[in-house]
Amino acid sequence: MKKTYHADEKGYYGNFGGSFVPEMLYPNMETLQNSYLEIMNEPSFKEEFNALLKDYVGRPSPLYFAKRLSSKYGTRIYLKREDLNHTGAHKINNTIGQILLAKRLGKKRIIAETGAGQHGVATATVCALAGMECTVYMGEIDIARQAPNVARMKMLGATVVAATSGSKTLKDATNEAIRAWINDPVEIHYIIGSVVGFHPYPDMVARFQSVISEEMKWQLMEKEGTENPDYVIACVGGGSNAAGAFYHYLDREDVKLVAVEASGKGVDSGESAATSVLGKEGIIHGSKTLLMQTEDGQIIEPYSISAGLDYPGVGPQHAYLFTSGRAEFLNATDDEAMKAGLELSELEGIIPAIETSHALAVLSKMKFKKDDIVVVNLSGRGDKDLSTYINYFNL
Amino acid sequence: MNRIEEKLAIHASSGKEPKKLLSIYFTAGYPELDDTVSVIKKLEASGVDMIEIGLPFSDPLADGPTIQDSSTQALNNGMTTEKLFEQLSSIRKEVEIPLLIMGYFNPMLQYGIEEFCQKCAETGIDGLIIPDLPVDVFHREYMEIFDKHGLYNVFLITPQTSDERIKYIDSISKGFIYMVSSASTTGAKNSFGTQQDEYFERIKNLELDTPQIVGFGISNYDTFLKATAHANGAIVGSAFVKFLKENSISKIPEFINQIKEPSHLSES
Asked: CB of A295 within 8 Å of any CB in chain B?
C-alpha cells in the first residue's frame, strides 16, 4: 500500500492522532466525525465556501516573487501572501469553512481559542458575518501582548474571556474553551484554529487550509512552468498554515517540506516551544502527538515571543511528518525571528507577523541552489505585533 | 469480586431500603504533600464508603477551577505518580474500603499502562477513573491489561450519552458506572432540576446490569438524597476539596455528617 501522510478513518497519522475526548463531548465528536466530509462535499457547501473565499477573504492570495530577498539568498523565493487575506492571516480560510459547517449542524453559539489573536479575530469575523454569538478564550498574557486583536474582536461583537489558569497562554485558552464546550455541548460549536485536537479537527482544518497549496500549484505553473517547488517553508505552532501549505505536496516526495518551530530563547534554555526537539509522545487536547512534558506526564509551559507559536504540542500530522522524516523540522529563536521580520520589511516592504518571521529566519540557515524554487508561506501580517517590534528594536 | 462490588453488594442487601453509597473525591498531595494517607484514613473513619484519589494533572480538562487549583497546588507540593504509590504502599494495612485512582490519561501513559496497573494491584487499588480515555480505545487496547490485574475501569455517562452507547458501556463495565449528573465540568453546578430527574429516570428504565453512582453537582444532604433516589450512590468532589482548603483534616467527620445525616434532621 502506498504510504500516505493523510489521516486514516479513525484520524490517525501513523501512531499519532485519534480521539481522546472526555465522554461529555463524545456525541459532538461522533456527529462531527460522521458528518464533516459529507458536509464539505455537498455542492451547496462548496459553492458557498468558494464564493466567500473569493469575494470576502480575497482569494486567491498572490504568489509573489520576492526579488530582493531572492537575490540576498541566491535562489528563487516566492511568498504565498496569506497576509493579504481579510483579517490578515491564513486563519480565515478555516473559520469560514467551520462557520458554514456549524450552521449546517444547527449550532447556536461559537467558541474559539486564540493565541496571537489571529484565529480569534477570524472567528469573531465569521460570527459577525453569520450572525452567531461568539466567545473567544485567550490567555491573560496574550491579551496583554496582542491588544489590537483584542480590540478588533470586541468591535466584531465577540466576548473575549481571559484564561487565567496555567501558563495563561494558548494551551490554557484551549483548555478553557473545551471546558466551556463541556458545559453546553448541545448549543455550541467549537471552532478550533489549528490542526490540533481530536479527530476530525486536524484533518478538517487541514482540508480547509489546503486551498493554500492548491493555489500554489497553479500559480507556480503560471510563473515557473511547474506545479512543484523544491521547498515549501512554513512556521509551526499547532501547525495549520504549514498543514495547508504542505497539503497537496505531501505525497510528492521531491518537494521538500520544511517546518519551523519557535525555539524561544534557545532550545536548551528552558524557555522554548520547539516541540519536535523537546517533546515526546503524549496526549494533549484529545490527540496523541509530540508533546512537551515532564517525565511524569505533566504538560510543560512553552515559551515564544510569538503568541501564536507557544503551544506545547504540534498537530498529529506534523508529529508524523517529523518522525517519518517526510518534513524537515528546523527552529528559530526569538532573536533570529525578529531580525528576519525586520529584514523582510526592509527588503520587500512587507511587515510579517512574528509567527511568520520564524519561517523566514531559516532562509539564512539553509543551502539553496540558484535555480531552486522556494515558497515561504507568509502566514500573516505584522500589524498586530507592532508593539513587540517597537519594544524589541527601540523604534 | 473486588472491594467495589463487595461494598455495593453489602449495601444492596442491607434491609428493606438499600443503603446508598457515599464516595468522596480528593486530590492526592493536597492541601499538603503528605496529607494523602491522613485524609483517606479520616474519610474511612467518618463513615465514607469509597474513596477516589485524584492523581493531579497540569491540564485537567473535565474539571472546574476548584479541582484544577487543588491539582496545581499538589503538583507544586511535589506530587508525582511515583510519590503517590509510595504514600499508598501500606494503605491496605490501614484502610478497608474500596479505593480508586481518578486521573487523566497522559501521566498514566508516561508511567506505562502495564506498570501503572501492576502498581495499582500491588497497592490494593480497586479501580480507575480516566475521563479522557475513551471507552472504545480502552476496550481495544487496554482492557486485557486491566483484567489481568483485577483492576476495574469505571466509565462515565452523561445526559447526552445515547441509550445504545449506555448499553455498550454497561456491557463492558465492572464495579459501577459513573453517572455525570449534567453537562458540565466538576463543581459547576450545585442543584438538580427537572432535566436531571428525567435523565435519572431514563437511566433507571434501561435496567442496566452495572450499578450507577452519580457524580458532579453533589455538595450536601439535599443533593445527595436526590442523586441517590434512583442510583446506588453518589460522589462528592469539588465541595470536599473546597472544604479541605478551608478546614483541617480533623474536621472531616463534620463535613461527612452534613451530607449523610445533617444536624437539622437529628435535632428535629
From this structure: yes
Rg (CA), chain A: 19
Sign, CA torsion B239/B244/B248/B249:
positive
Candidates B106, B108, B156, B168: best to mutate against A (most CBs of A within 10 A) is B106
Residue A306 — φ and ψ, nearest 5°?
-95, 125
Pick the catalytic residue: B63, B207, B209, B261?
A: B63
- pLDDT (tens digit, 9 = 90+) per residue, B208-224? 999 999 999 999 999 99
Residue type, B251: K
Q: What is the mean pLDDT of each run of 10 residues along chain B (268 residues)?
A: 89 79 98 98 98 97 93 97 98 98 98 98 98 94 96 96 97 96 84 87 94 94 91 96 97 95 54
Is B35 catalytic? The answer is no
Dist. CA A375–CA B229, nearest whole Å: 65
Give the CB-side neighbour count of residue A205, counting CA atoms within 13 A. 26
Contacts of B217 in chain A (CB under 8 A): none
- Reported as a pLDDT band with limits 50, 70 and 90, residue A2 is low
Nearest to A179 among B57, B106, B185 (CB): B185
Name, in order, each residue with C-beta under 8 angstroms of A289's C-beta and a sequence gap of 6 or more.
A16, A17, A196, A279, A281, A282, A283, A313, A314, A315, A316, A318, A319
B52 is catalytic: yes
Distances (CA, A) of B60 to A174, A270, A292, B32: 12, 23, 16, 20
What pLDDT was estimated at residue B14?
72
Chain B CB contacts of A186 under 8 Å are 160, 183
Helix, strand, coil distribution of chain A in percent, nearest 5: 45, 20, 35
Distance from CA of B185 to the nearest CA of A (A): 6
A220: helix, coil or strand? helix
Over residues A199-242, the pLDDT tens digits come to 999 999 999 999 999 999 999 999 999 999 999 999 999 999 99
ipTM (interface predicted TM): 0.93
CA A139/CA A134 separation, integer angstroms: 17
Closest approach of chain A CAs to the CA of B178, in angstroms?
11
Distance CA B210, CA A97 (A): 43
- Tell me the C-alpha distance between A344 and A259, whole Å: 19
CB contact under 8 A, A282 and B158: no
Q: Which residues of B touch A23 (CB under 8 A)?
A: 131, 134-135, 155-158, 161, 180
- Decide if B236 contacts B25 (C-beta within 8 A): yes
